[in-house]
């Protein structure tokens, strides 16, 4: 629809006689009235100035001007109005008839509808009652379901089924609380639901606290079980490895072929089943509390609470009590930590995100740092190798146990490796004390073994036997009790060293074990034996026993290096390839030198009898001089005794030194001041003595080879060549270089000159020539004089 056009603006009338301002106002008022504009501002202004007459005047003029228009309009529509009135009057009769008809119909309707209205009122009332009853039934049914849930929740709370109780509470809150029409019941539910949730949270928190206390004891037992399983597995591996090595060696020697396989997977399965079957390892309270807190939408807070508490427990477990020695508490200490991380590994794998891998690694790094600090502190205080080995073994078992769960133990192994030198120094110190005690208790007597087990324990276990045939019992060994005692100490050292070096992350450690074994033998045992030889050996029998022991030690050292190689997993052929010289060479030489020295002292005692020899006698002793007979008897007795305990090579060296000493003493006596003059008969007597020595060496041929027998005779070659020279027809041949090199190369010309001077016939001297001036001089004496003169010229 188009809006009606605004009335045309008409200029209003003007009045004469007003001033220009009033004329302007009148024009504006007249224009506003004509245009139908708002007159409010003009009214306020007019009454404000107190001159409303102008406004009233214009309004009256406007009204008069409109009256004429109205009249014109009325005149234009008057005929239409008259016709409309006539039409209405014609309809009046129809209206009256209609009115009477409607009145009659209404009366009939009222009479007919009265019973229906009463029935309708009854129906409405009944419908209202029915709706009220339905509402009441629905409300009661709702309340009954609510009460059933409430009753079920109470039952679950009493039985400890907190998750089901919370589900009931959640169902009440989400499905029934808003629909509950009973304000009393609704207020009660709104009040009780938070209380029930708080009660459940407190109960599961208390159960979790009890579990956190209990899991510490469980962790300790679990750690001990895990480490015990690792120890048993290690022992089985060692047994299988030893069997396999024995089989390899026997196969290498073509004795038999036998193969052993290490069943590591079965061991792992047994290990896992042993831990899985532990009834004490129960995480139900933890997972229950975690589930309840998830239901309460407190998952993050519970995770933080659990992690913080476990971190505090770990810090507490990582502290070492100052009231108990660490040696007594170290197993509990490490088992507690091992069990802690076995539990955490299970929680990580089955906890549904309760703890993350990063958090477990953080706890492990914290534990490793604490354990390393504790080990550094405790190792620095320890002064006993066995204590350090016990702790090292347990720590290595801890590493084996936790490595199965993916934990890195390199830092712990580095701490153990760092104290390797200190451990071996302590071990060497302990072995030094033990060896000194063992050597001090030695009685320098051959060891008697009455039973086969004694032979096996003292001989076979160190491979000291010289024959594979078992001896008859009782058996007298060529060595004293010192040998097996020291062998046990060395073997224990090797096993302890290998035990410390093995299972420590280093695979090839034979060189380290060998280095310290060399130190044990070359420094500790060798020095202890040297001290024993220098301070405690005072008799020939003692020195002989020590020398016999040294030869047995030589075989024992071979066993030591083979045993170290075998325990270190090194093939014996490689160990034999890197063999060194005998590490007890100093003490062996000292023992043989001491034996030789004591024998020489004993020989010197017999050699004092040489002073009883009549060096100017004209009679040749047929059976040799007395001193030589006594020496031969002693030497034969010595050899018969030494054969039982001394090896042939040692006996040969000692006898050679003794015979050389006898030769030196005889030559020294002939050259010394004791003998003033010598007769040829005395020289022949000495020749008989040398023949007795040669006969004695011939008796040793069953013990010596031909080469060794010849070397034995060279021990008294000096006295033999001297006697041969003095008994020869032409002694002056000594000055002949060719003859001297061939027959007298062991003689010193000064000794020859001294003895020759004493052998010269007095009648050949200057004063003895007066009575025999006309007689002919003995050619031998002449040759001897020539020799003496030539030797004097040389000197």
UniProtKB/TrEMBL annotation:
Span of domain Exocyst complex component EXOC6/Sec15 N-terminal: 58-227
Taxonomic source organism: Brassica campestris
Record function comment: Component of the exocyst complex involved in the docking of exocytic vesicles with fusion sites on the plasma membrane during regulated or polarized secretion. Involved in polarized cell growth and organ morphogenesis. During cytokinesis, involved in cell plate initiation, cell plate maturation and formation of new primary cell wall.
Keyword annotations: Cytoplasm, Exocytosis, Transport
Family: Belongs to the SEC15 family.
Protein name: Exocyst complex component
UniProt-annotated location(s): Cytoplasm, Cytosol
Bias (Basic residues) ranges: 1-11
Keyword Cytoplasm: yes
Family matches, as PANTHER family: EXOCYST COMPLEX COMPONENT SEC15B, SEC15
């Amino acid at each position: 629809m188009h809006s009606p056009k605004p009335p045309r603006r008409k200029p209003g009338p003007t009045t004469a006689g007003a001033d220009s301002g009033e004329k302007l106002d009148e024009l504006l008022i007249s224009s506003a009235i004509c245009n139908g504009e708002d007159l409010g501002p003009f009214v306020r202004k007019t009454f404000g100035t107190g001159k409303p007459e102008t406004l009233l005047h214009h309004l009256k003029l406007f009204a008069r001007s409109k009256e004429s228009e109205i009249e014109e309009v009325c005149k234009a529509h008057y005929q239409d109005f008259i016709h409309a009135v006539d039409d209405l009057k014609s309809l009046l009769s129809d209206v009256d008839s209609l009115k009477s008809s409607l009145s009659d119909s209404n009366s009939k309707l009222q009479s007919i509808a009265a019973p229906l209205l009463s029935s309708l009122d009854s129906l409405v009332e009944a419908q209202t009652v029915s709706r009220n009853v339905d509402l009441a039934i629905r409300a009661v049914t709702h309340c009954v379901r609510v009460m059933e849930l409430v009753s079920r929740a109470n039952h679950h709370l009493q039985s400890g089924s907190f998750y089901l109780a919370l589900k009931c509470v959640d169902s009440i809150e989400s499905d029934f609380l808003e629909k509950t029409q009973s304000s009393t019941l609704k207020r009660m539910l709104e009040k009780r639901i938070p209380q029930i949730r708080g009660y459940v949270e407190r109960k599961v928190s208390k159960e979790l606290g009890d579990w956190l206390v209990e899991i510490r004891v469980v962790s300790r037992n679990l750690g001990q079980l895990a480490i015990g399983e690792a120890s048993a597995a290690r022992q089985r591996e060692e047994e299988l490895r030893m069997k396999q090595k024995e089989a390899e060696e026997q196969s290498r020697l073509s004795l038999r072929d036998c193969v052993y396989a290490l069943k590591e997977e079965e061991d792992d399965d047994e290990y896992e089943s042993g831990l899985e079957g532990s009834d004490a390892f129960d995480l139900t309270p933890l997972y229950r509390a975690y589930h309840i807190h998830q239901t309460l939408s407190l998952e993050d807070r519970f995770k933080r609470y659990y992690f913080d508490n476990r971190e505090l427990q770990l810090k507490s477990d990582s502290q070492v009590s100052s009231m108990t020695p660490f040696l007594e508490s170290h197993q509990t200490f490490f088992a507690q930590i091992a069990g802690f991380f076995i539990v955490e590994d299970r929680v990580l794998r089955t906890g549904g995100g309760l703890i993350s891998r990063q958090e477990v690694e953080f706890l492990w790094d914290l534990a490793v740092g604490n354990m390393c600090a504790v080990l550094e502190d405790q190792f620095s205080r320890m002064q006993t190798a066995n204590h350090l080995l016990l702790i090292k073994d347990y720590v290595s078992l801890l590493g084996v146990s936790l490595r199965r769960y993916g934990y890195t133990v390199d830092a712990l192994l580095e701490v153990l490796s760092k104290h390797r030198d200190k451990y071996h120094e302590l071990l060497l110190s302990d072995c030094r004390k033990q060896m000194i005690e063992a050597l001090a208790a030695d009685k320098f007597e051959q060891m008697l073994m009455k039973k086969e087990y004694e032979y096996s324990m003292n001989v076979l276990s160190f491979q000291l036997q010289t024959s594979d045939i078992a001896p008859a019992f009782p058996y007298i060994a060529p060595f004293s009790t010192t040998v097996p005692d020291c062998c046990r100490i060395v073997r224990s050292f090797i096993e302890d060293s290998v035990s410390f070096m093995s299972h420590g992350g280093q695979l090839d450690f034979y060189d380290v074990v060998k280095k310290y074994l060399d130190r044990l033998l070359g420094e500790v045992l060798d020095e202890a034996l040297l001290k024993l030889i220098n301070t405690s050996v005072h008799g020939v029998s003692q020195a002989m026993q020590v020398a016999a022991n040294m030869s047995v030690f030589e075989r024992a050292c071979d066993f030591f290096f083979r045993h170290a190689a075998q325990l270190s997993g090194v093939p014996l052929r490689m160990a034999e390839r890197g063999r060194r010289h005998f590490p007890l060479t100093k003490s062996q030489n000292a023992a043989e030198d001491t034996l030789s020295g004591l024998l020489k002292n004993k020989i010197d005692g017999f050699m004092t009898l040489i002073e009883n020899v009549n060096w100017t006698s004209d009679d040749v002793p047929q059976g040799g001089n007395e001193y030589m007979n006594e020496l031969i008897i002693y030497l034969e007795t010595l050899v018969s005794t030494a054969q039982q305990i001394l090896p042939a090579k040692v006996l040969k060296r000692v006898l050679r030194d003794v015979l050389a000493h006898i030769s030196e003493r005889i030559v020294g006596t002939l050259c010394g001041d004791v003998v003033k003059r010598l007769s040829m008969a005395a020289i022949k007597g000495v020749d008989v003595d040398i023949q007795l020595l040669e006969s004695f060496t011939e008796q040793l041929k069953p013990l010596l080879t031909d080469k060794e027998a010849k070397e034995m005779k060279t021990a008294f070659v000096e006295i033999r060549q001297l006697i041969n020279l003095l008994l020869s027809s032409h002694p002056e041949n000594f000055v002949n270089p060719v003859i001297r090199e061939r027959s007298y190369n062991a003689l010193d010309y000064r000794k020859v000159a001294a003895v020759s001077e004493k052998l010269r016939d007095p009648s050949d001297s200057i004063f003895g020539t007066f009575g025999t001036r006309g007689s002919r001089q003995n050619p031998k004496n002449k040759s001897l004089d020539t020799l003496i003169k030539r030797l004097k010229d040389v000197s």
